[in-house]
TrEMBL record:
The lineage of its organism: Bacteria, Pseudomonadati, Pseudomonadota, Alphaproteobacteria, Hyphomicrobiales. This is Probable fructose-bisphosphate aldolase class 1. It comes from Microvirga ossetica. Pathway: Carbohydrate degradation; glycolysis; D-glyceraldehyde 3-phosphate and glycerone phosphate from D-glucose: step 4/4. Belongs to the class I fructose-bisphosphate aldolase family. It catalyses: beta-D-fructose 1,6-bisphosphate = D-glyceraldehyde 3-phosphate + dihydroxyacetone phosphate.
Amino acid sequence: MDLDQLARTAAAMVQPGKGILAADESSGTIKKRFDAIGVEATPDNRRDYRELLFRATDAMKNYISGTILYDETIRQTASDGTPLVKLVEQAGAIPGIKVDLGAKPLPFCPGETVTEGLDGLRERLTEYSGLGARFAKWRAVIDVGEGIPSWTAVTANAHALARYAALCQEQDVVPIVEPEVLMDGAHDLDRCATVTEFVLKTVFRELYEQRVVLEGMVLKPNMVIAGKTSSRQASVDEVAEKTLMVLKRCVPSAVPGIAFLSGGQSDEEATAHLDAMNRIGGAPWRLTFSYGRALQAAPQKAWSGKPDNVAVARRAFSHRARMNGLASMGQWTKELEERVA
Ligand code: 13P
């Protein structure tokens, strides 16, 4: 393990003004996104769409530090024969790879899942590293409901995250550790705070037990937010304050950066929340984004599968990337948001 290299990569992933593009939707998830814009989910359409993003030079060069790819994407070539992973590198962003194999039902824990994919992971990491991946991602999913999450599900998921992170670091691949407490449900902000604190404390205990070096990882958590159907939605400032409070209780300052997931927030909410946290300041880690939906919803809609729409889709992507880049420094404003490029 080369700790200097891991720390350098992790620092580059969370550098000021930039964040991570999560373009690692599995074939099932991207089908859902394509269904919504009336595009057939074929390998070529997935390729064309991702090529559109990776060739959006303004967004990629200026606001995107790294891009998470999916297994299919890291092997695909652009229409002119250039590997897609090279397009990401040429744009100045670091290529990464989703390595988990998805959340599967956890026995004896109704309504809960554990993320699978540890078997054979060392060999898959070797291959991905050879293809150009310098960081990886593993997502654990924690549902909030009556009587859940259970201790069983949280510890099983935290253990798998830590095993994955250690295997990554063994091969000088920076692990993005993503324990996502879902926004689904009617729970309030405080319940999300309690669950998130329990999850993060458990994750860091397991990381310690598996000897993961905190300087060489990036945490990708949910923000502390009320459930989607909660009757009391919190203000931007409440979300920012509660999220920082929970993170400070749980995340050692040796971790170089925290790159949030958007998790179903609207584009503007995801940006406003990140901005508010950076305006409060005083955090020991860099706070940035690793958004999937909150970066891609606008370009996907603008594109809608039509080659004629590529330029406008790229502009929509650039705008979102720029707004989030500003938010990562606490410099976003509503006025800039509305002044469409
Ligand atoms: P969202 O920002 O859409 O939640 O996606 C981020 C991600 O990578 C989920 O694993």
